Amino acid sequence: MFETVTPPEPDKIIRLMGMFAADPRPDKVDLGVGVYRSPDGRTPVMAAVKAAERGIWERQETKGYVSLSGDPGYLDAMRRLILGDAVPAARVAACGTPGGTGAVRQVLETVRRLRPEATVWISDPTWPNHPAIIDHLGQARRTYRYYDPETGGLDRDGMLADLAEAKAGDLILLHGCCHNPTGADLTRADWQAVADLCARTGAIPFVDTAYQGFGDGIEADAAGVRLLAATLPEVLIAASCSKNFGLYRERVGAVLIMTDAKAAADGVLAGMNRQNYAFPPDHGARVVQDILSDAGLEAQWRAELDEMRTVMQGNRAALAAALREATGSDRFGYLGAHRGMFSLIGARPEQVDILRETHGIYLVGDGRMNVAGLTPGVIPRVARALAEVLA
Ligand code: PLP
Ligand code: TYF
């Protein structure tokens, strides 16, 4: 069956992980894959997660199946975390998924089935799994302008001009916050403009939210998606708990769908889970549910998340300052304005190669940097290398 097959292009981010692991240089610096690191370079299990896991170990009496959509308590906790009280629970259908990627896949496959003629609009650039999954399913896609490399900010006019061509029923894929890979986010006014555009054209927003709490805080990072959800008839959400709960390998995600046809949508989502993997993973979802339903654990988790965000913002400020000193210019000042783990630093692929080969500094080929991979000790060296290679 496989003799004549050409395997698909490997994921460039995952390939970079392998290259980093194989590099014997002791002073190599991983600014590639999107994983949080504390100032001592670790990706720790959060203390609130450990506590919740201890409680599960002590109290869980069965590992029997739960339900095709996952535990209703988990789904309700995710709805409250992401949507607050922006929409009544009676308008939100949901299912658990293996990670945020699983949620993206379930939403897109649902659209493939129900709206095969729809075009999915993705930002240029976006997370590579978005076009990969859309193409795998055979759905049409188009890109909209998003990032202005001159300012390091959003190309608002380009975005709205391109999206004005969206047709009723098309999907507009947006990042809830902490845009991957650019680090440039929509302001409240930009979200409002997108909501107005969707209301006018009948296009449906599809919000991928994988970094809630990494930008400006839990509530602030959800403001955009809440605005859309409160004003539009139909909104699709794919959510991930990989980053904000540090549960990467447990695969915790969820689909939330705002609709007036909740019962039908719930049935479609459960059926989609059944066809693809039946029951979604439970352990990580239960950890999230237990944290969000216990005031003490939730407060502990929020404090840990605040600390992670503070570390990343500190790394941004320190790198921007070191680059100001190394280049004598404010060319990289936008790094401080970006949000989340990622920024595009404007490196061409051959410059990314030099940074990796000569300096042991690993960035994704498009020049994406994971600022969480910086530690105070390496920032001066990274700044000098960037100033030299990007001069
Ligand atoms: N969407 C975006 C934009 C991401 O960057 C990620 C990566 O974390 C995900 C979704 C989902 O990741 P996971 O499948 O690990 O939850
Ligand atoms: O963009 C990142 O680095 C994270 C992790 O296929 C990731 O979102 C990378 C590639 C992938 C799945 C997750």
What does this structure look like?
The structure is a single chain. The protein is globular and about 60 Å long. It is of the alpha/beta class and 391 residues long. Helix 4 (99-114) packs parallel to helix 5 and helix 13 crosses helix 14. It has a 7-stranded mixed β-sheet with strand order 2-10-9-8-7-3-4, with helices on both faces. The chain has a two-stranded parallel ribbon with strand order 1-12. The protein folds into 2 domains: 12-46 and 302-389, Aspartate Aminotransferase, domain 1, CATH 3.90.1150; 65-293, Aspartate Aminotransferase, domain 2, CATH 3.40.640.10. Helices cover 45% and strands 14% of the residues. The structure holds pyridoxal-5'-phosphate and (2S)-2-hydroxy-3-(4-hydroxyphenyl)propanoic acid. (2S)-2-hydroxy-3-(4-hydroxyphenyl)propanoic acid (TYF) binds at residues 11, 13-14, 33-34, 101, 127, 129, 180. The site of (2S)-2-hydroxy-3-(4-hydroxyphenyl)propanoic acid (TYF) has 9 residues, from helix 1.
Short structural description:
The protein has about 400 residues and is an alpha/beta fold. It contains 14 helices and 13 strands.
